[in-house]
Amino acid sequence: MFKTNAATNRKTHEIPVKVNETNPLNLRYPHRLNFYNKPPDSEITIEEFESWAIDRLKVLAEIENSASRNKSFEELKTTLNLRCKEHLQLNANSANNANHDQERRKDHYSHFILRLAFCRSEELRNRFVNAETQLFRYRLETDDSAARTAFVSRLGLDWKDATPEETIEARRVVTKDKKQPGEEGVYYKQQKDQSSIILQEFSTKLLQALEITSKHLPYMDEDSRLLPVLEHLSISFLAGISGSDFVTSTLNPDGGELTASMIDGLAKQHFPPCMKNLWILLRKDKHLKYGGRQQLNLFLKGIGLPIEEAIIFWRQAFCNITDDKFRKDYRYAVRHNYGLEGSRTNYQPKSCVTIITGSVGALESHGCPFKHFSQINLSQHLTQVYQIDPKSDLMKDIIEFKKNEHFHLACTAVWEHQHKSLGVKKGEGLGQGNQSLIPTDTMRPVIG
């Protein structure tokens, strides 16, 4: 049991540790636990900056996912045990063959890197504090008692172990979970209350630190190479990307992997009409009905957009809803299309035939424009989106193709017009009306 003096303010500064008493291994980081009161004081590489931050983000994302699935803390501990071994290992001082300082240095630096990413809004700050507090709780409860006691004593909290006589007194004044003051303003705390006090102290101090960082952020001289990394980290966290989904890609945007930030540029210049129409509506309405989401998401998957980037794309597109609603109502469907939920079926992009022959309701937006648009609406759409003159021979050809149900020929004609600046001439369109095509085939000349 422990006692605290109500009349004395608690101290939270760290007390220097004597190497010969509590740091027998002579470690730079003598404790597995950390309140992160002191910022890092040495340089790391840009690769370490990103990879360490992403490894920590994977662990924090698992904490958020467990909360959204209403898992108990005991279930979370099992998950964290696996995730931390993979990405954020922290061995006890008693562990053999462990590089304690290197593990704890990575933990220390990755925490402060994510502070820079998550101090930028109130929602980010609160979610980061909640996730970090749960991670700290896991470590606190799994630390051995001697190491825990040494760490707590170093925090400088204003308490001390109760004597046997004081323990007897405490039993008299403590009624269930309600504490009554003893003599001279002394409060007695049960052993189990120690964790809640420490966790409250941790979360309070972290939130205060994030608010301070947020105020000073505009004046920080951040390396320009780090800005996209920090933005990507925060967006990924808001999008609810799980640890298994996240991959390292932010430092190599030209490395061949498709990212969410590339989609708008590709859509404007290269998407086939059936997908460009959905993209336009998505950007205008900040929403798509189920059929449209399915058609576009499978297309994005087919052209090589990774799952973590797909989640970022849809989260940014659905900017009018809360993060909680996105996680509950839309994130699952995106992952399901990628074969990561439910039956884990590896769904393929819808073929042109499937899109053309599918049914489309009056208020729905998916389907094939050449099949499902009226002649008037199609003509207006082609004029507005592709700047095709309503009186041109090209427009006449497209309308004629529609009337004769040669929808693939109409699509090919638009594709040729869309890419004439790249040297594509009439008659050189992809597939020349081959009905075995899928919309992703139109992207091969662009992205390979």
From TrEMBL:
<keyword id="KW-0479">Metal-binding</keyword>
<keyword id="KW-0238">DNA-binding</keyword>
<dbReference type="Pfam" id="PF04104">
    <property type="entry name" value="DNA_primase_lrg"/>
</dbReference>
<dbReference type="GO" id="GO:0005658">
    <property type="term" value="C:alpha DNA polymerase:primase complex"/>
</dbReference>
<dbReference type="GO" id="GO:0003677">
    <property type="term" value="F:DNA binding"/>
</dbReference>
<keyword id="KW-0639">Primosome</keyword>
<dbReference type="GO" id="GO:0006269">
    <property type="term" value="P:DNA replication, synthesis of primer"/>
</dbReference>
<keyword id="KW-0004">4Fe-4S</keyword>
<dbReference type="Pfam" id="PF26466">
    <property type="entry name" value="DNA_primase_lrg_N"/>
</dbReference>
<keyword id="KW-0235">DNA replication</keyword>
<dbReference type="InterPro" id="IPR058560">
    <property type="entry name" value="DNA_primase_C"/>
</dbReference>
<keyword id="KW-0411">Iron-sulfur</keyword>
<dbReference type="GO" id="GO:0051539">
    <property type="term" value="F:4 iron, 4 sulfur cluster binding"/>
</dbReference>
<protein>
    <recommendedName>
        <fullName>DNA primase large subunit C-terminal domain-containing protein</fullName>
    </recommendedName>
</protein>
<keyword id="KW-0408">Iron</keyword>
<feature type="domain" description="DNA primase large subunit C-terminal">
    <location>
        <begin position="266"/>
        <end position="421"/>
    </location>
</feature>
<dbReference type="GO" id="GO:0046872">
    <property type="term" value="F:metal ion binding"/>
</dbReference>
<dbReference type="InterPro" id="IPR016558">
    <property type="entry name" value="DNA_primase_lsu_euk"/>
</dbReference>
<dbReference type="GO" id="GO:0006270">
    <property type="term" value="P:DNA replication initiation"/>
</dbReference>
<dbReference type="InterPro" id="IPR007238">
    <property type="entry name" value="DNA_primase_lsu_euk/arc"/>
</dbReference>
<comment type="similarity">
    <text>Belongs to the eukaryotic-type primase large subunit family.</text>
</comment>
